[in-house]
DNA sequence: AGCACGCCGACT
DNA sequence: GTCGGCGTGCTC
């Protein structure tokens, strides 16, 4: 029998199936979906078995060396899905499969040199290497060419051997447990004076299951000594048992019961349940305003799925995967829930994933990659905040979780729910066209009003002589809240202290040496940072260009706002949340908990506070610079502005106290800002669609972005031009090929970046054409200088 | 990605 | 002559 294997070598030349002989004794063991170790040239490497056939068309197949899994780690469905995914995203099949397994299972191959003979036969030159052991790691000799030569000679002579050890990165965690020994000794045999021994033994005897050492010692209030004696005497034995790392250890979840649904909720849940029960796949777009009770619809739909003996996947954006969010699912479904997100350690992720594989849980709540959860009987897939761009992976394979969800939904004939208060234009357009089933949920539960939104014209403020970043109204409202003991949230989509640093005399702006971007001043360590490559330098005292000391800061980031706040509102206690204050593990939660406990009056932050925050005392939300996103050269900037403003507004007045929103803007009449006032999504959709139609942007067309980068500017331009010309020749006449143009960020990390863009409606041969481009530049890309990356349906254009 | 093979310039 | 530089092509 022959196993078709995808080998663990990420390159386009090896992105195909390799045939390996299944040794007679493993015919029963080798199955589709397991990992194996196979010989590959002179090396041995890992591979995924994706098919088993009776014979190979290849002449000399080598046998499989080792089997890595007893149970398949990829289901047939996932293997198919990976093939589809690699075709869709133009990436390697291997990369697709690696997405589906936890990092802990990714193997590292350790290369070693082994001594195979008596030391006397080895030359003096390399003898010292084997002083301690008969093997040394390859890294110890790989840098030394002289040594390599000698080693190669000895390998030829058979005195040394080069071996490849395949190791998994993650380990299963084990703990020591105590159970009764199989040799039945009677408790009466213990001398009566050994009171503690008797006590411990009877405790063990009372419990059927093995008990962890620590638990036993705690329960019997004794020390390790007594236990050791019992083990020595042969009454009990110590065993190692595999345990799960519990990322949520110590947290207790309050059980919640299904709430009775409102009439509106019932109306939207009915078709979902019908799809579930009828096993008829459908994609639903649940358009529910903030506070309309979308989550309860999710929960009861999941419950329905579980009752039908099926599983559920729930995706939420990474940043909103807060304990608050997890709590809602754990509260309802308890231990049936696994949680997957980037905050977990590699081991924790591995454990959560194994619970899914072993069917110990039926619900998974996680960020983007949780869409690949290895369930085999999915009853429902939910994507919350479906408009979030974080569902698109921005590195290869550049997939969108929404597409994967629908693909899996079709396979399992189950409903897929896309939920959002501000759906992406693409999804809403599809819903209107009838491709998705639109489920509007336009009223808030208990008829709570949407927060009142007040847009402040900052030009007017300026005219009245207010040059600060807080409008009169905002300041007044902030003071009011502090006086009343209520809380406020201030939002600014920019971290650091200032956006750029300029010399007043000559106009010189400090820029990064490696990127074409101005540096941001960070007050905390008095330095200038590049937000793209991480480069950091000391803040100069004089202008680098003219030597003047009139260096000034322009624009403001969260750090500056924080400083300003303490100046104008000295009585306010402020918590700042941005990447800089939340980088440390757990910092995010700590700051939120502090705010929740009322330890601060104002929460000041970037993007990350726009979602999921739900504190009863927040009654004021202020957006300091609503335009900051609007003027980014990206066709989605208006959409993002509207979504963000709506999202942020949703933080206010979620409970008994009414909420209020202040939006400061220099372009208050732009529809993306003005329509937030009335929370009018439909109107926004209409306006934005007409813009998209005029500019020929999605959802009217599909896009492909090709990024080309190289250290040499002339070469980038050259390659980009060739690619564009090729595309124009190959593609349909109604397809638009734009470029090549310099990327908005022309240089990052010393590499020049150009791009070509494709806008198309129908293009059957597109993927083949793009594959040809990839194929054509393989050589040059392998050599390391050139990068050509293709992004289907891009979200980031810089 | 590695690794071997093979073809040219520079040195014992 | 040979050592070692890197370009080229293969891995079931």
Automatic annotation (TrEMBL):
GO molecular function terms listed in the Swiss-Prot or TrEMBL record: 3'-5' DNA helicase activity; ATP binding; ATP hydrolysis activity; DNA binding; zinc ion binding
Cofactor requirements of the protein: Zn(2+)
Sequence positions that bind Zn(2+) 2: 512, 515, 530, 533
Enzyme class, broadest EC rank: isomerase
Keyword Disulfide bond in annotation: no
Pfam families documented for this protein: DEAD (PF00270), Helicase_C (PF00271), PriA_3primeBD (PF17764), PriA_C (PF18074), Zn_ribbon_PriA (PF18319)
Entry GO CC: primosome complex
Catalytic activity: ATP + H2O = ADP + phosphate + H(+); Couples ATP hydrolysis with the unwinding of duplex DNA by translocating in the 3'-5' direction
Cofactor binding summary note: Binds 2 zinc ions per subunit.
Name used for this protein in its record: Replication restart protein PriA
Gene: priA
């Amino acid at each position: 029998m022959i196993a078709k294997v995808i080998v663990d070598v990420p390159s386009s030349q090896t992105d195909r199936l390799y045939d390996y002989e299944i040794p007679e004794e493993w015919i029963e063991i080798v199955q589709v979906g397991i990992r194996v170790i196979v010989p590959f040239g002179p090396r041995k490497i890992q591979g995924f078995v994706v098919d088993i056939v009776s014979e190979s068309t290849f002449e000399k197949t080598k046998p499989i060396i080792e089997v890595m899994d007893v149970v398949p780690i990829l289901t047939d469905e996932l293997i198919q899905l990976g093939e589809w995914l690699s075709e869709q995203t133009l990436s390697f099949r291997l990369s697709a499969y690696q997405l589906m397994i936890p990092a802990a299972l990714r193997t590292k191959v350790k290369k070693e040199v082994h001594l195979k003979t008596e030391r006397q036969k080895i030359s003096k030159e390399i003898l010292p290497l084997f002083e301690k052991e008969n093997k040394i790691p390859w890294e110890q000799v790989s840098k030394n060419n002289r040594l390599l030569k000698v080693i190669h000679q000895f390998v030829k002579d058979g005195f040394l051997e080069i071996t490849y050890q395949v190791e998994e990165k993650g380990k299963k965690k084990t703990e020591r447990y105590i159970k009764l020994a199989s040799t039945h000794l009677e408790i009466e045999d213990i001398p009566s004076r050994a009171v503690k021994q008797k006590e411990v033994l009877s405790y063990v005897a009372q419990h059927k299951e093995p008990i962890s050492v620590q638990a036993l010692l705690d329960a019997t209030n004794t020390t390790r000594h007594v236990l050791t004696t019992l083990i020595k005497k042969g009454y009990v034995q110590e065993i190692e048992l595999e345990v799960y790392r519990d990322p949520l250890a110590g947290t207790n979840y309050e059980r919640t019961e299904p709430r009775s649904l409102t009439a509106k909720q019932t109306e939207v849940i009915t078709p979902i349940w019908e799809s579930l029960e009828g096993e008829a796949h459908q994609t639903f777009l649940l358009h529910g305003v903030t506070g309309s009770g979308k989550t309860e619809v999710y929960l009861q739909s999941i419950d329905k799925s579980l009752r039908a003996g099926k599983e559920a996947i729930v995706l939420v954006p990474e940043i909103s995967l807060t304990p608050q969010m997890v709590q809602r699912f754990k509260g309802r479904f308890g231990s049936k829930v696994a949680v997957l997100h980037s905050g977990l350690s590699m081991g924790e992720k591995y454990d959560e994933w194994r619970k899914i594989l072993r069917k110990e849980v039926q619900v998974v709540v996680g960020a983007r990659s949780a869409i690949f959860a290895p369930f085999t009987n999915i009853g429902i897939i939910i994507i919350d905040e479906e408009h979030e761009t974080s569902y698109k992976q921005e590195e290869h394979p550049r997939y969108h979780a929404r597409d994967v969800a629908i693909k899996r939904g079709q396979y399992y004939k189950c409903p897929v729910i896309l939920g959002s208060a501000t759906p992406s234009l693409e999804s809403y357009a599809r819903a209107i066209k009838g491709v998705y089933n639109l489920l509007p949920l336009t009223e808030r539960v208990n008829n709570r009003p949407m927060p009142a939104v007040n847009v402040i014209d900052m030009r007017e403020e300026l005219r009245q002589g207010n040059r600060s970043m807080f409008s009169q109204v905002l300041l007044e409202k902030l003071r009011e809240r502090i006086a009343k003991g209520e809380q406020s949230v201030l939002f600014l989509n920019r971290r650091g202290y200032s956006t750029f640093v300029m010399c007043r005399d000559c106009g010189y702006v400090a820029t990064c040496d490696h990127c074409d971007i101005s540096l941001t001043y960070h007050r905390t360590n008095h330095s200038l940072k590049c937000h793209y490559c991480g480069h950091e330098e000391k803040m100069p005292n004089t202008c680098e260009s003219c030597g003047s000391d009139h260096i000034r800061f322009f624009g403001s980031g969260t750090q500056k706002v924080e400083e300003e706040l303490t100046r104008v509102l000295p009585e306010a206690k402020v918590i700042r949340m941005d990447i800089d204050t939340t980088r440390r593990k757990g910092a995010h939660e700590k700051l939120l908990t502090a705010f929740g406990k009322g330890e601060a009056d104002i929460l000041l932050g970037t993007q990350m506070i726009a979602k999921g925050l739900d504190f009863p005392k927040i009654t004021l939300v202020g957006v300091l610079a609503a335009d900051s996103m609007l003027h980014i050269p990206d066709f989605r900037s208006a959409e993002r502005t509207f979504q963000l403003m709506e999202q942020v507004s949703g933080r206010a007045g979620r409970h008994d106290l009414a909420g209020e929103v202040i939006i400061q803007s220099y372009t208050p009449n732009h529809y993306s800002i003005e329509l937030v006032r009335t929370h009018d999504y439909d109107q926004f959709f209409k306006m934005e669609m007409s813009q998209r139609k005029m500019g020929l942007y999605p959802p009217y067309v599909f896009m492909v972005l090709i990024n080309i980068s190289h250290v040499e500017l002339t070469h980038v331009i050259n390659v980009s031009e060739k690619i564009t010309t090729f595309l124009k020749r190959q593609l349909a006449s109604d397809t638009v090929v734009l470029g090549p143009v310099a990327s908005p960020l022309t240089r990052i990390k010393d590499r020049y970046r150009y791009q070509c863009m494709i806008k198309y409606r129908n293009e059957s041969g597109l993927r083949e054409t793009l594959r040809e481009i990839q194929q054509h530049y393989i050589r040059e890309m392998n050599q390391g200088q050139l990068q050509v990356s293709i992004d289907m349906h891009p979200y980031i254009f810089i």
